Amino acid sequence: MAFDALPDVSDEALLDLYAKGDRAAAYALTQRMTPRVLGYATRMLADRAEAEDVAQEAMLRLWRMAPGWRSGEAQVSTWLYRVAANLCTDRLRLRQRRRATPLDDAPEVADDAAGAVAGLIEADRMAALEAALAELPERQRQAVILRHLEGLSNPEIAAVMDIGVEAVESLTARGKRALAALLAGQREALGYDGEGV
Amino acid sequence: MTGKGSEMAREGNDMMGLDDLLATARAQAPAPSDALMARVLQDALAHQPRAVVSPAIVTAPRGLAARISDFMGALGGRLGVAGLGTATLAGIWLGFAQPAPVAAMTGLFMTEVPLDEVDLIPGTDDFLTEG
Q1: Mutant choice from B8, B21, B53 vs A, greatest count of A C-beta within 10 A
Q2: Which contacts (CB < 8 Å, 24+ apart) does range B97-102 have?
Q3: What ipTM is given for this predicted complex?
Q4: Which runs of consecutive H residues, i.e. helices, occur in chain A?
Q5: pLDDT digits 0-9 by tens, B70-119
Q6: Disulfide: which of A167, A197, B122, B129 matches A191 by Cβ 3.0-4.6 Å?
Q7: Disruptive mutation site among B40, B45, B50 for chain A (greatest number of A CBs within 10 Å)
Q8: Measured between CB atoms, does A179 come within 8 Å of chain B?
């Protein structure tokens, strides 16, 4: 997590200060929000350059919207995740139209135990997770990332995805089961069997 | 039953392993580059509204009534101005009417004295008397 210059000030208060011309608030919001949006976009898109573009665009929309922000209607972070989610969806659909599946961009993952026996290092475990996430249906991937990687609560995810909390729970559960199945082939390498890697 | 139990145990292990993996991934969140942070901050400052000057600081041209009000305030407000007005009118009346007691008082000071009787060094007798 990046250094937060004004840790005691809420996101909404910072946005209000920003809209009033406070430069320190601009700096603090940049430091606080950019890593979150980038993290989400990187995991959704599995492409660093595209994720940076999404993060910058989402933050730009935040700056433009700040003067008209209606206090109490939504959390700043939730609003920002929703914008980022929409931007990611646009890019994923563009990929599909170009017939380039997300997995094409992801690193190759060993698909048999023999290839992984040598013991994957941490980066390989992350790469395997990234590749498995990319294979999930988009909504499941979104829910799993927001819940388990970004740490949002189910109500927050419901607000981001514009669905009910029960739907979030269902998507998250199905997403995790699918992930586990996808990663089962690398069980030993990924440290599923007790001792870990 | 044994096979099914074994499969369930393995699925449980898979989920636990997945939870560990997700926790590790969460701790390794992608860090933004300095270049990205600089671009975002540049956008922020470029689109930031200018600081609004407080309306209280902006002074509009003041009308005659406002200026009179300010002047009256400096003189002590309505009561102060009323007192001053009364005193002024009283002075004018005394000047024109010359009531008897006032005329008697002014007569003491305004008696005409011939120029050749002016004592240029008054009261020297007092010094001579006391030695």
Answers
A1: B21
A2: none
A3: 0.80
A4: 11-19, 23-45, 48-65, 76-97, 102-105, 113-116, 122-135, 138-144, 154-161, 165-183
A5: 666 666 776 776 777 777 766 666 666 666 766 676 666 666 655 566 56
A6: A197
A7: B40
A8: yes
